[in-house]
Q: What sequence folds into this?
């Protein structure tokens, strides 16, 4: 039974990584397109807009990792990130 839990936890980690990459690339393209439309083609994005993009992407990424950790904990595996309240 322990092997099955380790297998599922490893699969969740791999799926999270793959999904994170796909989502990051999709959002990168969408936001680049949005910024080009807003700024006009040929203009460079501002430093502020790039930092805003990075901060929003980080928040979404953290929320997704926490969700996957919650799923891993629900199936009996050990989450890579534990909340203080769970300790």
A:
């Amino acid at each position: 039974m322990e092997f099955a839990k380790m297998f599922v936890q490893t699969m969740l980690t791999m799926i999270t990584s793959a999904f994170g990459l796909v989502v990051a690339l999709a959002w990168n393209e969408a936001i680049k397109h949005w910024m080009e439309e807003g700024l006009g083609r040929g203009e460079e994005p501002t430093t502020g807009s790039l930092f805003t993009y990075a901060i929003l992407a980080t928040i979404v990424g953290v929320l997704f990792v926490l969700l996957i950790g919650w799923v891993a904990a629900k199936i009996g595996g050990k989450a890579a990130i534990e909340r203080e309240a769970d300790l």
Remarks:
- The CA atoms of residues 14 and 20 lie 10 Å apart.
- The chain has a mean pLDDT of 74.
- DSSP finds two helices and no strands in the chain.
